[in-house]
Amino acid sequence: MKFGLLFAYQTPPESGIKWSQPYLDMLNCLPVAEEIGFNSALQASHHSQSDGFCPSPLIAMAGAAAVTQRMRIGTAVLLVPLYAPLKLAEDIAVIDNMSNGRFVFGVAPGYVSEEFIAHGVPREERVSRFEEALDLMQLAWKGKSFSFYGQHYQISEAQVTPTPVQKPHPPIWYGVSAKSALRRAVRRQCVQIMSPRHGIEELKEHYEPYEDEAKKLGWIPPERPIIRQVFVAETTQKAEEIASPAVDYLYSVLYGAASAAGDRVLRNDEGQIISNTEDVAYKTFKERYIIGSPELAIKKITEYKKELDPTEMICWMHMPGISGENAMKSMQLFAKEVMPAFL
């Protein structure tokens, strides 16, 4: 199993952390992460958030490309319907060239109502815009002059150069959970990347339609990455002291708020739907994240290996309010004490 890192750059209001600091923490830690064995650095993104959650993932990953040589860099995920697809195709081609073919294009249609309102995109069109934009981009990456006439996007003539280093284009990872979307991911021969808000049993449910469709088409997915919130320290008590406030924040402000608003369902460890953010607490989702001593992390990751057999675990260590110094210590301890158990 391989291991990667996830970044979002959220700064809770009470943290006192400057907007710039999480970005500097990322740039400082990635050369070290690459040296000690991490395989990838991926960028989460949202828009119109009050805590600085990264709204420009491609710019952030261009910085990541500049300070690394071997790690894959990419988005997990970029909300495609909020972008002009031709411009997006150009930007991704450039960043794939900047990184010499190391870019992974994680995508999703999005779900947070405020994001669509802010960008003037009808939320009810998000799925059709998402799929149509990917059609357009995959055509554009061929590098030939083309035209495109869809429901949402019309291009009489265009050409995208440079073309991506990776052929026919960078790998596309679908960050979706709806059965119909998972089947479309297979038909496009895209990898499935699942949100950290889902527990193991939910993940199994989401893999089922994806795998069924893959079998029907005779296609074998090349990867199975998963994202988890991860933080390790010398003792579980110390890890929880540092990371539990970050988890509380994430699950209340982002996932819990969206579930309470009816945008996207979040279930607790007992399978009950969260309809009130007051129901969110560190202990509510303890089966979902890996926070504790190296021994506990090995035990939990072994369970994920047994139940889901992931090819890569993307570790969200730089969580909201956690200092760059503490995240770096967790990363180094994880590489030293946990990763060798899965080589």
Q: How large a portion of the residues is in β-strands, by DSSP E?
A: 15-25%
Shape: globular
* Beta-strand segment tally: 11
Within CATH, the superfamily of the domain at 1-16 and 225-343 carries the name Luciferase-like domain
Structural class: alpha/beta
Unreliable stretches, pLDDT < 50, 5 or more residues? none
What's the alpha carbon Rg, rounded to whole Å? 19 Å
CATH uppermost class of the domain at 1-16 and 225-343: Alpha Beta
Q: Using the 3D structure, state the CATH architecture of the domain at 1-16 and 225-343.
A: Alpha-Beta Barrel
Straight-line N-to-C gap: 6 Å
Topology order in helix (H) and strand (E) letters: EHEHEHEHHEEEHEHEHEHEH
In DSSP terms, counting alpha (H) and pi (I) runs of 4 or more, how many helices?
10
Strands of the largest sheet, in order across it? 8-7-4-3-2-1-11-9-10
The biggest sheet amounts to: 9 strands, parallel
Please, what is the average pLDDT? 93
Helix content: 40-55%
CATH-assigned fold name of the domain at 1-16 and 225-343:
TIM Barrel
